[in-house]
Each structure stands twice: as C-alpha cells, then as structure tokens.
UniProtKB/TrEMBL annotation:
This is VOC family protein. It comes from the Bacteria. InterPro entries: Glyas_Bleomycin-R_OHBP_Dase, VOC_core. Residues 7-146 form the VOC domain. It holds the Pfam family Glyoxalase_4.
Length: 181
C-alpha cells in the first residue's frame, strides 16, 4: 500500500508482440481472459507537454485484485513506452494507482515534486498521467482516473476473471461509448 495513492492496481508490461504475450499469460500463467484493443482511443495525448497521435494496442486481464496490462506501440510517436523499448527493455514498465479523485491526487503528487511526462484520456473521466521518475525499469508511476466508463470497464474485466474457465482467452475490448450510457 502506497502512503500517497493507496494500493497498486495495475502492472503495465510493454511487449514487442502482444498476441504472443497474451498467449503466454493465458497458457503459462493461467491469467485471463484478456480484453484486447488493437488501437486504444486515447484523446488529448501529450508527451513532454506536446501533443502527438499515438497508436498503442492494449490487452487487459485481472489476476485477483491486480490488473495486468500488455502494451504494444504501433507507431513511432514519442511515449514512455517507446523510450522503454529504445532503452533495450521489455516487460514491466509501470505500476498504476487508480483514483476517483484525479485532480486532488495529481496535485498532491505534483506538490511532492513529481512531474507529468505523459498524459491523456481514455473515455469520459478516464484521464491518466505518467510521472517522470524511474528508479529502474518497472518503477514508473501512472495515476489513472476510474470514475467513468473506463472504471466500469475495469470492473467488468475483473469480474470476467473471477471463476474464468479458460474459454475465450482473448475477447474484444468493451465499447467505452456504450459504457457511458
């Protein structure tokens, strides 16, 4: 438990082949089902304060309370994921803390001297920020807002993992617009 943001809720792995990574997590780790989106609908994306059109594929599954996120970059837009790969890394890139009070938690982290390196939005009330501190690979902190449809989707993904029987190990990403209704 972090004294700043509560429990770590997600482990974010940057991979070169998301399909192979999903298969590994399913068959070797027994984790699933994964909900896969070949192009995450990120809005208002910034890296070092500049806007870019980023194309990432993401797969999400839960193992109990912890969500596993697999990320594959699909273009060369600047991102912390791209930086991670260019440094010769693959695997755990970040841990995410989920919040229902994004503005307060973001301000508290900034007051502690953390600076936002990468940010954007996934659906209404689905903002995220990655901070620029990294002790070693896997220690980047993401603050992820889970009030809106993204939060509903995360709950659905966790519920799908409970008593999962191994069938349909890869499923389509839920529609965030439908989750808003």
């Amino acid at each position: 438990m972090s004294q700043y943001l509560g429990a770590i809720r997600q482990l974010g792995y940057v991979v070169n082949d998301i399909e192979a990574a999903m298969e590994y997590w399913n068959k070797v780790m027994g984790v699933g089902p994964f909900f896969y989106n070949p192009r995450v609908p990120i809005e208002n994306y910034t890296y070092d304060g500049k806007q870019y059109d980023v194309h990432n594929s993401v797969a999400l599954a839960n193992s109990g309370f912890i969500q596993v996120e697999l990320i594959q970059t699909r273009n060369d837009a600047p991102s912390m994921y791209r930086d991670f790969l260019q440094a010769g890394n693959t695997g755990l890139q970040h841990v995410a803390f989920w919040t229902e009070d994004y503005d307060t938690d973001l301000a508290a982290m900034q007051a502690r001297g953390y600076h936002v390196k990468m940010s954007g939005e996934v659906g209404t009330n689905g903002r995220f920020a990655y901070f620029d501190r990294e002790y070693h690979p896997g220690t980047v902190i993401e603050l992820s807002e889970v009030l809106g449809p993204k939060g509903k989707m995360f709950r659905m993904i966790r519920e799908a993992s409970e008593n999962w029987d191994g069938k349909d190990p890869v499923r389509p990403f839920p529609n965030l617009k439908e989750a808003e209704a």
